[in-house]
Specification:
Layout (H helix, E strand, L loop, with lengths): L11 E12 L2 H9 L7 H19 L8 E10 L3 E12 L4 H23 L10 E13 L4
Antiparallel strand pairs: 1-3, 1-4, 2-3
Helix pairs in contact: 2-3
Length: 147
């Protein structure tokens, strides 16, 4: 199956915002806030991982075109029992950046899970309350010619 031919499309500014959240135990959230996670700061690590994920999206998703990324912004909101990740990606390209924004969010949330999993496991080694959910594109904008 070939990649979609985008060679005839105009180069325009493209912007996408995605979000998702991870549900965690309240005790885990408190340890994150207090800086008591063994592997370090999950929020800082998740931001770095999300930025790297944007750059690696075409390597991870077979039919995504490599595009010149101009901006990646990742923000987090911490509640009592969950953390929301939000990513904005901007590029001047012939194709959109929503897959890059979604990849950033998912990798950010997986990074958090990896760093706190020892706190989230039950006695059987499972994760009965840990959940990644609500991953979606909030906004997709195409500016310029043929917008």
């Amino acid at each position: 199956m070939p990649m979609v031919d985008i060679s005839g499309k105009e180069m325009v500014l493209r912007r996408a915002v995605a979000r998702g959240e991870i549900s965690l135990k309240r005790e885990t959230i408190e340890k994150i806030k207090e800086g008591l996670i063994k592997k370090g700061d999950p929020i800082q690590a998740a931001e770095i991982a999300a930025t790297l994920a944007v750059k690696k999206t075409p390597e991870l998703i077979p039919y995504c075109h490599p595009i010149p990324i101009e901006k990646v912004a990742v923000d987090f909101a911490i509640a009592d029992d969950k953390i929301e990740a939000r990513a904005e990606v901007v590029a001047r390209a012939r194709t959109g950046v929503e897959m890059e924004a979604l990849t950033a969010v998912v990798i950010a949330l997986l990074t958090i899970w990896d760093m706190v999993k020892y706190l989230e496991k039950d006695e059987g080694g499972n994760y009965p309350t840990t959940l990644i959910s609500g991953v979606r594109v909030l906004k997709k904008v195409k500016e310029g010619n043929n917008a």
